[in-house]
Every structure is written in structure tokens, then in C-alpha cells.
Amino acid sequence: MIGVMTDKQIEIILNLVADKFAGCKDMDEVKKAIEEVRDMARKEKSSAE
């Protein structure tokens, strides 16, 4: 079951993503962070189905 997210839930997720990128020191770390965020999104999508 897929529900509608509240503004607060979206805000929390965006802050978590921003925090993940804020710690990156170079482009290699940015690439790794992107992969990790995408992996988390895939896991969430598959568990919601």
C-alpha cells in the first residue's frame, strides 16, 4: 500500500539526503553517496509492493 507523504516526511528525507552529500569531500564520495541513496530507494520501492 502506497500512501501520500506529508510535508514533514518529505522534509526529513530531503534533510537526510542533504546530510549524506554534505559529508562528501570529493566526486568519488559523491558518486558513492548517489549509489547508496538510489539503493535505499530501490529497497523501499520493492518492500512497498
Describe the structure.
- This protein is mainly α.
- The protein is 78% helix and 0% strand.
- The protein has two helices and no strands.
User: How many whole angstroms does the radius of gyration measure?
Assistant: 13 Å
User: What helical percentage do the residues reach?
Assistant: over 70%
**Number of helices in the DSSP assignment:** 2
Report the strand count.
0
Element order, helices and strands? HH
N- and C-termini, Cα separation: 7 Å
| Quaternary form | single chain
What general outline do the C-alpha atoms trace?
Answer: flat
Low-confidence parts: none
Q: Work out the strand percent.
A: under 5%
Structural class: mainly alpha
Layout of strands and helices, then pairs:
Layout: H1 7-22, H2 27-48
Task: Provide tags for this entry.
mainly alpha, 49 residues, flat, 2 helices
What's this model, at a glance?
The chain is mainly alpha-helical and 49 residues long. It has two helices and no strands. It has helices at residues 7-22, 27-48.
